Amino acid sequence: MFVRYIYRMDERIIKYFDGELSGNERIRLLRESEANPTLREELLAVQNIRGVFLLSAGNAGKAEGEKPYRHFMRIYRRAKLFRMAGRVAGYAAAVALIVFVTWKTTVSTMQKSAEQASVWQELYTPAGQRARITLPDGSTVWLNACSALRYPSVFTDERRVRLTGEAYFDVAHNAVKPFVVATASLEITALGTQFNVYSYPGAEYVSASLVDGSIEVCNPGKPNGTILEPNRQLVYANGQFRVEDLDEDQLLWKEGIYTFKGQPLGKIISKLELYYDVDIVVANPQILHYRYTGKFRQRDGAMEILRIIQKIHRFKIHRDEELNRITLS
Predict the structure, then answer these.
(1) Which residues, 6 or more positions from 79, have their beta carbon under 8 angstroms from its beta carbon?
(2) Burial code of 288-310, b = ≥16 C-beta within 10 A, e = fewer?
(3) Which of 261, 280, 300, 303 has the greatest number of beta carbons closer than 10 A?
């Protein structure tokens, strides 16, 4: 498999993991990978190779793990320049040796101490999709569209993850090690429970919604937080907390359903922009005040959802694919 990738790997993949792509270039690459299974397979292959190298570094840290990974990529780039089958085969053998030695080192490290093998991983869900993952402690996480979850390969002194976007957590009980979800503005602590966290960058608010068990929600660095009871939701906006009843229909997103109840079009648009990573421009501000109630399938996409809404209150829809922009007028 490695030989095949050396022959034809898209150069943007290397630049993606080296941080050499702009924000727009990264988004464009991820979108192409959604529709191109081969490109997606190559992205995952490099991500896995990089993960192996980082895992082998153990307590030495990310910087040490990056060294053999970057050496691997230098080998690939030189092989691509020569384009000679014999030379490529030699490099492929070298790569195989590097991966084998790294694997042996990783196994040895994990056998010595699981703590030394703890490396941070990141799961990202593209626009219009969702994902489910089981964490090292057995907790289950559903990740909504355009969301990212950072988590360690092994939980050590604490169970801590970092969320950007929205996720639903079903936490495995552990009375000794609380489970902490860190966001840009809040920290949510639980022992064993089910709850939802909404924390998209640029969103009007951050929320924590409790389905079962108990959670504590607080600002990082502050000692006292708010304890939530089941079927209650804490909303943090403009520096203020408020607690309200939970509408569990809001959590249907993990089943692939988006629900809006009597919400103005302006708020619906804000959600669609977050879920589908699209810019929606309203040329006629009057339509922002129209209210809608309905359930939509995630796979329908922003355009189809707007077309359905359009049947209730008439407005025009125009999409600019190049700019990734939808205009309502």
Answers:
(1) 6, 87, 88, 91, 92
(2) eeeebeeebebeebbeebbeebe
(3) 280
CB 126 within 8 A of CB 31: yes
- Is residue 18 pLDDT above 80, yes or no? no
Mean pLDDT, rounded, for 182-202: 93
Exposed/middle/buried for 11, CB within 10 Å: 0-12, 13-18, 19+?
exposed
Higher pLDDT, 123 or 55: 123
CA distances in angstroms from 78 to 7, 43, 60, 81, 99, listed in the order given: 11, 20, 28, 5, 18
Long-range contacts of 246-253 (CB under 8 A, 24+ apart): 246/209, 246/210, 246/211, 248/211, 249/295, 250/196, 250/209, 251/168, 251/196, 251/209, 251/211, 252/295, 253/130, 253/144, 253/166, 253/298
As a residue count, the chain comes to: 329
User: Considering the chain, what percentage of its residues have pLDDT values greater than 70?
Assistant: 73
- Please report which confidence band the pLDDT of residue 6 belongs to, taking 50, 70 and 90 as the band edges: very low
Q: How many separate helices (H) and strands (E) can be counted in the chain?
A: 8, 18
DSSP letters spanning 35-90? H-HHHHHHHHHHHHHHHHHHHHHGGG-HHHHHHHHHHHHHHHHHHHHH--HHHHHH
pLDDT one-digit tens code per residue, 281-323: 998 888 888 899 999 999 999 999 999 998 888 888 999 888 8
pLDDT, tens only, 129-158: 899 999 989 999 999 999 999 998 888 878
In contact, 231 and 247? CB cutoff 8 Å: no
Reading the block at residue 178, the tokens are 């609380």
What DSSP line would sit under 8-41, residue for residue?
Answer: H--HHHHHHHTT-S-HHHHHHHHHHHHH-HHHHH
Q: What is the pTM of this model?
A: 0.66
Identify the CA nearest to 144 among candidates 259, 222, 65, 245.
259
